[in-house]
Write a structure and sequence with these properties.
The strands form 3 sheets. Strands 1-2 form a two-stranded antiparallel ribbon. The chain is mostly helical. It is built from 14 helices and 6 strands.
Length: about 375
Amino acid sequence: MSKYIHERAGWTEMKYDASVLLNPLIQFYHVYGRLHGKLDALGFDVQNDLVLSAVSDEVVDSSEIEGETLNRSSVRSSVAKRLGIETAGISDTPANHYTDGVVEMVLNATQQYSEKITDERLFGWHAALFPTGRSGIRSITVGSYRSNEMSIVSGAIGRERVHYTAPEPDRVPDEMKRFLEWLEGEEESDPYVKAGIAHLWFESIHPFDDGNGRIGRAIADLLLARADGSSKRYYSLSSQFLKERTAYYNELETAQGYDGQIERWIVWFIGCLTRAVEASEVKLEKAKHKAVFFEHLRSTSLNKRQVSVLNRLIDGFEGKLTTAKWAKLCKCSHDTALRDIYDLIGKGILKRSAEGGRSTSYEMC
């Protein structure tokens, strides 16, 4: 008996009972329509803020799923620059080659969603993810499909657990050819279902030495952009995957089992997508609050440092805002930071927190 999905004859047919998907899809389209109804009532500035947030989250959280921690501020600045969105956010850490590479891959997938997905395009994404030709300290094959066996393993040495073993390397080119032909075809009746199948199918092949998760999620993002008919991303699927990481891995592993429970995977995928859109609605409300806040301050004179920090506070500043943190965020002196803070206190925008002395911090009024 076959153990993994790819060991079954005709495994790429990906059969499923469409009737099982009816209710999850109805719920998704309801939530999706509600989000876009709210978006239509907003100005471009608020929409752009939501796009910037969603794309930045996609970059950071897709990497976080794989254990790679990126500086969110650097990512946001890199995304804003590439999308031509003006932002008051200040990055205290310059983007490195890896950060720029991940941003480039995600934006290529979502901004050029109508372009055909080819081997060469995927090789370009892979090269962007690994600009040094290494994954950590390990040298890997970059910009081409793997030539080694591939297994997903967890656990300490001597107590390893094999979660999945991918197709043999000599099968990969043909498997990817079949996959890419399906991607550009019209086989699936629902485009969001197609995004879910594509992610499972790609991860089942696991064609690269490393980076399969990030590239697989970028492929799903590209198909979601095609389904939306827009390059503007208002929600992040990877952020929801990260929140539900244990379930995400469990559902992928179950679907890649020998019985190929593809219906269960698609139901979970559509549910996760629905929750991602709902999370975007929450962020939309925050973006609206920010827009109203700064609209009230339109006639108030604020410098760039003050606007930047106020943006941070509204977005959800971690920890307490002190003079030292202000100086670090804005790359200014302690005295300049104190003048900025006192100016905002005088204008009734900031106030001192209850603690005093060395613990003095500030919060919004």
